[in-house]
Give the backbone structure.
Amino acid sequence: MYWPYDKIGFGEGYGLNRGGHSLTWAFRNLRADLTVWFRDTFGWTLHADIERALREHLGYGFGVGLGWLLMALGLLSGRKHAALWLSFGFFAALVISGLFYWIGSVVHGGAVYSVRYYYEGIFGACLVVAYGLVALIGKLPRRWIGYAALLIACAASLLGYTPARLREPLPPNWSNGLYGYNNISRAQIAAVNAMRAALGAPEQPTLVVVLKREGERDNWRDYGALLALTDPYLKSDIIVARLFEPEEVPEFVRRFPERLVLYQVGATLYASLAQALTPSPE
């Protein structure tokens, strides 16, 4: 997918914000992204009231995600080791390069996707944190106590924090957080299974052909869960194909003689091409 405004740089025509991308927006996004990243990477945060006070009065949220303390510990402990700085530098380079891209954690009131660009740097960042924790535990008279405490803390974060984080409401109106985010959920898969059962072929591998009627919207989110199931070698139980012209359908479908063929327009599935191409009533 490509949009003319979706490019790296500053100025008019870069991104969706009025006047284009700017350093002001870049540092605003950086602040929001690092707050979320340091909070969610290690599940170490503050009480909501303290978080709100910091956000309003101290750096607009810097420090809310306390994971930066663990990274600072690692950098301090391993400050004489070049390999550790290399690991940190890879993460830092990703963060800095993100300043040149317009998309941020929140655009026009809607949560979007910029923190994901830090993903490749997580490994190096975790090495830095691990070095600091091991160095700290090494100063204890009984190291096993430190490692046991670390395991308990990790388990508590995983079990006590992660489920709640996945359900945390997101702007503008995602009350269930990441569950069903962007309207993508297992309901899309269930709809395919229900239609297969109704057609008497509940176990038959299926091809879902996505089409667009004149004047109607086309949104990848309507079949996002099915895209996740589609094998690049086209051997998965469900595969999705987006065709731009109805005339392409017959020849394309003949390539999959063993599959049940369903058709999708918008968020609606159809059992036949004729049904899919019939204009919806006004």
